[in-house]
């Protein structure tokens, strides 16, 4: 599932938002764990934010801010598998956006 979410994040990075949204919807039926649910939710949130943003970018979500937020989630003593999956997707998107800058 992790590779599937990463491929969706790459679609988002290339601006293929409609394809990414369709793929996210199809992946909902393939969830096998809480970690998968967290990753998919993060990717859905990123896609949704970009679709609503002007000019197709998330100006307030700089790669360093994404990385910091993900590390904060992982460091929480209350973090569970869902949170881990969410943080992993955020980190993957952060790394992707750093490569394209």
What's a concise summary of this model?
It contains five helices and no strands. The protein is an all-alpha fold and 101 residues long.
pLDDT < 50 stretches: none
- Mean model confidence by pLDDT: 86
Shape: globular
The number of distinct β-strands equals 0
Structural class: mainly alpha
Number of helices: 5
Helix content: over 70%
Gap from first CA to last CA: 26 Å
Q: How many separate structural domains?
A: 1
Q: What does the largest sheet look like?
A: none
| Beta-strand proportion | under 5%
How do the SSEs run, as a string of H and E? HHHHH
Q: Write down the Rg.
A: 13 Å
What key attributes describe this structure?
101 residues, mainly alpha, 5 helices
């Amino acid at each position: 599932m992790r590779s599937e979410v990463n491929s969706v994040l790459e679609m988002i990075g290339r601006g293929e938002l409609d394809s990414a949204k369709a793929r996210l919807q199809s992946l909902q039926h393939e969830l096998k764990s809480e970690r998968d649910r967290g990753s998919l939710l993060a990717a859905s949130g990123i896609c949704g934010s970009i679709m609503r943003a002007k000019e197709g970018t998330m100006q307030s979500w700089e790669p360093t801010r994404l990385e910091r937020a993900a590390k904060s989630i992982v460091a929480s003593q209350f973090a569970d598998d869902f949170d881990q999956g969410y943080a992993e997707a955020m980190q993957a998107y952060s790394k992707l956006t750093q490569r394209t800058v």
